[in-house]
Specification:
Blueprint (H helix, E strand, L loop, with lengths): L15 H10 L1 H6 L5 H24 L2 H8 L7 H5 L9 E5 L4 H9 L2 H4 L8 E9 L2 H7 L3 E9 L6 E7 L5 H9 L8 E5 L3 H17 L3 E2 L6 E3 L4 E8 L4 E7 L19
Parallel strand pairs: 1-4, 5-9
Antiparallel strand pairs: 1-5, 2-3, 3-4, 6-8, 7-8, 8-9
Helix pairs in contact: 1-3
Length: 270
């Protein structure tokens, strides 16, 4: 089933009582992000809901083959070689930065977020969720402590997943608005493809290291594969700087089995 997601009306965010209550309830993490008043909070909610809307569209409309075709368009001879290593036709998740603190974003998922765009209402039947710190390698990449919220959503027969990164640092709201209006994605926006085993993550990592050495438009953000102790995932990423695309190849028992309770949590950040 195709879903046409409509723009969010500015009138959805003019309830001063709701904004004031949210500002009061979440004032500490909002102040950390330099959000001090209702107007700034309304603008931040608007941006995040529109980003989530687009991420859900991407989950529905993109598949692995078309994504890899876009990613490798300047080196088309690599497409068949990469697709031969992959088995899933659908994307596993879309990852993006949450400008809102995660505890506030979770509230919005549970209550009024679908009302901000009626076309989203069918998505927000949450199957399960998990919050945990990002890997130490990721925190080094963004130079700030970061938490991740994974939300699995019921939608038709599929369970699309969003991965939202709350980077604990101040927000430049004016710059954020300008970039959002220009459809500039955040620097950590990525598409994730699930692979069956850790050995394949390692194989893809080595494969793309060689490609990045031959073609400067490709960049590996991590020199080694990432093993996140907090959710026991194993992953690697590659960026196409020219196409502004980042792809993650990830595996872990959390995909098909019970979500592990995080232990030995890494919280270190530079």
């Amino acid at each position: 089933m195709s879903v046409n997601l409509s723009p969010i009306s500015q009138n959805s965010l003019v309830n001063p009582e709701l904004l004031s209550a949210l500002l009061n309830a979440y004032h500490l993490p909002l102040e950390q992000k330099h959000i001090f008043d209702e107007q700034a909070l309304a603008q931040l909610i608007q941006i995040d809901v529109e980003k989530i809307t687009y991420a859900l569209e991407e989950l529905e409309n993109r598949d692995v083959a078309s994504l890899m075709g876009d990613f490798l368009q300047s080196t088309p001879e690599q497409i068949d070689k990469v697709l031969a290593k992959l088995h899933n036709g659908r994307l596993y998740h879309v990852g993006l930065e949450s400008n809102l603190p995660l505890e506030l974003l979770q509230y919005l998922f549970k209550y009024p977020i679908a009302n901000l765009n009626p076309d989203l209402a069918g998505y927000f039947d949450i199957s399960r969720s998990l919050v945990f710190p990002a890997s130490h390698a990721f925190q080094q990449r963004v130079q700030a402590y970061t938490e991740i919220l994974r939300i699995w959503l019921h939608h038709d027969s599929a369970k699309p997943m969003l991965e939202l990164f709350d980077i604990h640092r101040p927000i430049d709201l004016k710059r954020l608005q300008i970039n959002h209006q220009k459809d500039v994605r955040d620097n950590i926006w990525h598409y994730a493809i699930y692979v069956r085993e850790e050995g394949l993550v390692e194989e893809l990592h080595r494969y793309f290291i060689e490609i990045s050495r031959l073609h400067p438009q490709y960049q590996m953000p991590f020199s080694r594969i990432i093993r996140n102790k907090n959710d026991r995932s194993v992953l690697t990423k590659i960026i196409n700087k020219a196409a502004h695309l980042e792809i993650e190849f990830v595996t872990g028992s959390f995909v098909t089995g019970p979500i592990p309770k995080p232990n030995n949590i890494e919280t270190t950040s530079n």
